[in-house]
Design brief:
Strand content: 25-35%
Number of helices: 10
Radius of gyration: 20 Å
Number of strands: 14
């Protein structure tokens, strides 16, 4: 790491420090605060000329603030003559609005954010379980998307017999992710929850495709927001005879009544990554376990600097 420097904004400094510790280095000296009127103030406080720089910054709530911190840090590094700027964005916010459904009069927010990042000198993005893989096409530079769920579920091989487990896709759109997790666990069959979503954060389970009776159900997904969808799915699985339900969800957005919904659900355990630094209320929830993703991101940074394959991390 002699020619690399890691910087962080204010979205998840604990994760950034863990990454730096794993790489046996220190975080770069930087000031990221606000002027008296609330505008963000950034100053790089060490020499970065000719250096390969990395910015650790999730763009979770408050997304507008965290995105502005990210682009202003990148611009400051570019103007300070950094050789390269890689944005490590564990949670890529604004990724859910990635198309105009039935030509509705809405923005494609994910494209707007991608354009902002492209215009400030960022040359690469590393992210975790991006909401839609086609978002990578919004960028004019490489985007490395790490499939975190495959890594998070590996410990199950030591805890359960394969015959006990059944991977359940929480919706039709999650089948590819569920198949990948099933392959990691060497499971042949899948179950799929067929649901109807009338509006954001509200869904209804219509049907369950597949057999879950007497099984430990593994439910992988990229993010959990209000937990309403997961709660409905868990009750449907228990009604069909599921013995235990463990959800592996990368990004713990956990907004609104998420913790109440989770406590009232039939979920036995929810494993999330620390891509987002959850609040104290969430940390106290007995159903939530946090998986430290810092070692994986540290390996990704190391492989990038040494020219090794990043995709080998999750294969």
């Amino acid at each position: 790491m002699n020619n690399q420097i890691i910087f962080t904004g204010n979205s998840n400094p604990d994760l950034a420090q863990r990454i730096a510790d794993n790489l046996n280095t220190k975080l770069g000296a930087i000031k990221v605060d606000t002027f008296s009127d609330g505008e963000i103030n950034v100053e790089i406080q060490e020499n970065v000329r000719g250096k390969d720089t990395f910015i650790i910054q999730s763009t979770n709530n408050p997304a507008h603030k965290n995105i502005m911190e990210l682009v202003l840090i990148a611009d400051a590094l570019k103007r300070a003559s950094a050789r390269s700027i890689t944005a490590v964005i564990p949670y890529f916010g604004y990724s859910r609005q990635d198309r105009r459904v039935r030509s509705a009069r809405v923005p494609i927010s994910a494209k707007v954010v991608a354009d902002m990042l492209s215009n400030v000198g960022i040359s690469r993005v590393i992210t975790l379980d991006i909401h839609s893989e086609q978002l990578q096409g919004f960028f004019a530079f490489p985007v490395d998307n790490i499939y975190t769920a495959n890594i998070m579920v590996k410990s199950l091989k030591d805890e359960y017999d394969v015959d006990e487990l059944q991977v359940v896709s929480p919706d039709l759109g999650g089948v590819i992710r569920a198949r990948s997790v099933a392959k990691t666990l060497e499971i042949q069959d899948l179950a799929i929850i067929d649901k109807r979503r009338e509006k954001a954060n509200e869904s209804e389970v219509i049907n369950l495709i597949g057999e879950v009776e007497g099984k430990v159900c593994i439910v992988p997904d990229d993010l959990i927001d209000t937990a309403g969808t997961l709660s409905n799915a868990s009750h449907a699985l228990k009604d069909k005879g599921a013995k235990e339900i463990i959800a592996f969800i990368t990004h713990p957005v956990l907004s609104g009544n998420a913790i109440e919904n989770l406590n009232n659900s039939a979920i036995d355990k929810l494993v999330v990554s620390n891509s987002i630094d959850i609040d104290d209320k969430s940390k106290k929830c007995p159903k939530i376990d946090v998986f430290d993703i810092a070692p994986v991101l540290s390996k990704a940074i190391t492989r990038l600097t040494t020219g090794e394959s990043i995709s080998e991390l999750f294969r």
